[in-house]
Amino acid sequence: MSLYALARPLLFSLDPETSHHLTLRLSGLAGFAFQKIPACPVRALGLEFPNPVGLAAGLDKNAEHIGALARLGFGFIEVGTVTPRAQPGNPKPRLFRLPQAQALINRFGFNNVGVDAFMQNVAGSRYRGILGINIGKNADTPPERAVDDYEICLEKVYSRASYVTVNISSPNTRGLRDLQQQDQVESLLARLSNRRERLADRHGKRIPLVLKVAPDLEPGQIKAIADAVRRYHIEGIIATNTSASREGVEGLPHANETGGLSGAPIRERATRVLRQFRDELRNDVTLIGAGGIVSGNDVEEKRAAGASLVQLYTGLIYRGPALVPECVSAFRAK
């Protein structure tokens, strides 16, 4: 039995957010780290990944545990979401387990230390692998100024990021998902693309941009986003974030809590959106599959739907670090 399997009953006996922070601290222990990971290099986003299995944003919001999490064997780490100014997020409780469904509901609301303190944490890390930085807007920034927040964050994280993820799909910041509407996503990507070109000239390197989308998009929205992504030369899409739907968890304890649903119940929904982006974009953009991965079989499904890379979060809570080599092996099995 793995160390995580022994620890999980204790962790699940605690309040979910307390357990979340304790797990981050435990991630650096030898028993959870230095797993044997099969070799599986892949080139995507113009970068060389040691393996295609990454950590999704949201677990390490403040970039405080990058090195410890990397020792679990991930091919890349994504940290954040970070906003220009520090903010506490939504009131507690704001994280709920649905163990019967291998699911979580969270309404954290981009709680983070702000981009300046966040970047101090990044600078203090010894990690030299591929690091994605996920950026968002402050909750009190009015909708008409939302793009300003993304530009501020892009400028401040640019020098340290391997790629930057533009998060417009969390359901926990009022109005954020409106940025997925055609006119707004066009405006956002146009400005970020222009800012990226100026930053590339200044820093002598062109950092890939990735857009993180919701699993609740309609086909027309997917086509509009795909068109904008292609027009503004965005290199990647993460499909997907958490879901506002409660399909698959109806009647379970906590199912009616406000927030984003993640884990096994959203797998099919997320994969359907991934597949639709593949059909719209063909091979023009790197697709990163996320949402509902709790086994190697789920990775095979994401690959078949067009994913070159995948990310884990909720599956780690239920399966532990052993899920990482299992997912890497699923990529190698093709």
Describe this structure in words.
The chain has a single domain, classed as Alpha-Beta Barrel (TIM Barrel), CATH 3.20.20. 37% of the residues lie in helices and 17% in strands. An eight-stranded parallel beta barrel has the order 3-4-7-8-9-10-12-13, surrounded by four helices. A three-stranded antiparallel sheet has the order 5-6-11. It is globular.
Layout of helices and strands, plus pairs?
Blueprint: H1 3-13, H2 16-26, E1 42-44, E2 47-49, E3 53-55, H3 66-70, E4 76-82, E5 95-98, E6 103-106, H4 115-124, E7 130-135, H5 146-157, E8 163-167, H6 182-203, E9 209-213, H7 219-231, E10 236-239, E11 260-263, H8 267-281, E12 286-289, H9 296-304, E13 309-312, H10 314-319, H11 323-332
Parallel strand pairs: 3-4, 3-13, 4-7, 7-8, 8-9, 9-10, 10-12, 12-13
Antiparallel strand pairs: 1-2, 5-6, 6-11
Helix pairs in contact: 5-6, 6-7, 7-8, 8-9, 9-11
Structure summarized in a few sentences:
By secondary structure, this protein is α/β, with parallel strands linked by helices. It contains 11 helices and 13 strands. It has a single domain (35-332), classed as TIM Barrel (Alpha-Beta Barrel).
